From TrEMBL:
Assigned protein family: Belongs to the major facilitator superfamily.
Signal peptide from the UniProt entry: none
Domain Major facilitator superfamily (MFS) profile: 1-417
GO cellular component: a single term: membrane
One Pfam short name: MFS_1
Protein encoded by which gene: Mfsd9
Organism: Nyctibius bracteatus (Rufous potoo)
Listed name of the protein: MFSD9 protein
Statement: the UniProt record of this protein carries the keyword Transmembrane: yes
Gene Ontology molecular function terms on file: transmembrane transporter activity
Listed transmembrane segments: 62-89, 149-170, 238-257, 277-296, 317-339
Subcellular localization(s) per the UniProt record: Membrane
Length: 427
């Protein structure tokens, strides 16, 4: 699963940085290019919850394969887009079905115990981040060739087809449940044991895989079940963790929203330096993903404490950046922010799955992605308003939102520490 995640973001990051240049070369105005970009984000916002929930119903194999193949179709169409209309059409299947990483994370949560989940998720994020670092370099090289954008799009589509083959070859019927049950027998368990929940979920996942054939014959049953599960999330006591995710997402997006422009206005550095600094932060983010194992052991696998401390550090570092008097203070804040944000993103996903229960992991991850999409829509608007007052306005506002998230986590400390008696889990 780490290899397809690496290839996924490697292929996407080859194409995405070149898309604005390509659509403008087709004769589109800035407004049309912006509308098409917003269309993709809007489709992601509404589709992520439905696709995630669908993966809970029909099984990870079918949903993951469908998303990979339809994403490959989208990038293939992108490679044939010679008009603005075809370009817009090519974004539709990708906008609806490009949730391959979310379903892969749901699959990982099915396969590992609660105790090991932050570590495995951290390694998963690190693998995909490496692809995101290397992809733009390869994409830039391919663009220099004749019809470079079209070739890059076809290469990306080919990578997704290769991922489909890798996913098909995974040993779906050999999840080694016997070994896990043997390991569980050697350890103390209680009625709320994470590993017991994990074992029960493996059984339900296998049963779901068997039942998925009948579900495929009745799409209306699938739709009804999806809507019922989404209603279960909406009626559950999970609003606070999703609000924390939204606030922290907007805070980090505000930090990066006017990064290059703010550095130029405040310190007179060129955009190239800002680009190097962001690449440096991305590389540190990969390292942070690999360090989650020692960190979780240090905190005795208390995800809530890790999230609270990482969010507090993130808030402090954003404030440091907003009040920085020299470029070296910016470098210092960026260095540690790469660690705190990477750790925080992993922990908040783990806390969502812990509070909501593994049985709806796809739904929960889908809702989480929708929440992040809302942040991507809201953050540019807030950034524009804050920049009217000062170049330091966006990060200052971001620090304030992060502080609100920290206060919410403190108010709900009892719920997080006890794993919560969440309505969705009981369902």
């Amino acid at each position: 699963l780490f290899l397809p995640s690496f290839q996924d973001l490697f292929g996407v990051s080859m194409v995405v940085p070149l898309m604005n240049l390509h659509i403008k070369s087709l004769g589109a105005s800035h407004t049309v290019a912006g509308i098409i970009g917003s269309l993709y984000g809007t489709m992601q916002l509404f589709s992520s919850t439905f696709v995630g929930c669908w993966s809970d119903i029909v099984g990870r194999r079918y949903s993951l394969l469908a998303c990979i193949l339809l994403s490959a179709l989208g990038y293939f169409l992108l490679g044939t887009s010679t008009t603005v209309f075809l370009f817009a059409i090519s974004r539709v299947p990708v906008g609806i079905f490009k949730h391959t990483l979310s379903i892969s994370k749901a699959l990982l949560s099915d396969l590992v115990s609660e105790r090991d989940r932050p570590l495995v998720m951290g390694h998963f994020n690190a693998a995909s981040s490496v692809g995101f670092i290397l992809g733009p370099v390869v994409g830039g090289y391919l663009t220099e060739l004749e019809d470079g954008f079209y070739q890059t799009s076809f290469v990306c589509a080919s990578i997704f087809l290769l991922n489909a083959c890798l996913v098909w070859m995974l040993p779906w019927s050999e999840e080694n449940t016997g070994n896990r049950e043997h390991q569980q027998g050697n350890e103390g368990t209680d009625s709320f044991s994470a590993k017991a929940n994990h074992d029960l979920h493996l059984k339900s996942a296998n049963n779901g895989a068997v039942a998925s054939d009948s579900l495929f014959r009745s799409p209306w049953i699938q739709v009804a079940t999806v809507l019922k599960r989404i209603k279960g999330v909406a009626c559950s006591d999970l609003w606070d963790i999703f609000l924390v995710r939204l606030l922290m997402s907007v805070a980090i997006l505000l930090y990066y929203s006017n990064f290059s422009l703010a550095l130029e206005e405040r310190f007179g550095v060129k955009p190239l330096f800002a680009g190097y600094l962001m690449s440096y932060s991305s590389a540190l983010g990969v390292l942070a993903g690999c360090l989650l194992g020692p960190i979780t052991r240090l905190y005795q696998h208390n995800t809530y404490r890790i999230l609270l401390h990482s969010s507090t550090l993130t808030c402090t570092l954003i404030l440091l950046y907003a009040s920085a008097l020299s470029i070296w203070m910016v470098v210092l804040s960026s260095t540690f922010l790469a660690f705190s944000t990477t750790i925080g993103r992993t922990c908040i996903i783990d806390l969502e799955l812990t509070l909501g229960g593994n049985e709806a992991s796809g739904t929960l991850l889908g809702v989480g992605q929708s929440v992040t999409s809302v942040g991507r829509i809201v953050a540019p608007l807030l950034s524009g308003i804050a920049q009217e007052f000062s170049p330091c306005g966006p990060p200052t506002l971001g620090a304030g939102l992060a502080l609100v998230a920290i206060l919410i986590m403190n108010m709900k400390k009892q719920k997080y520490c006890s794993h919560g008696n969440v309505k969705l889990k009981n369902q």
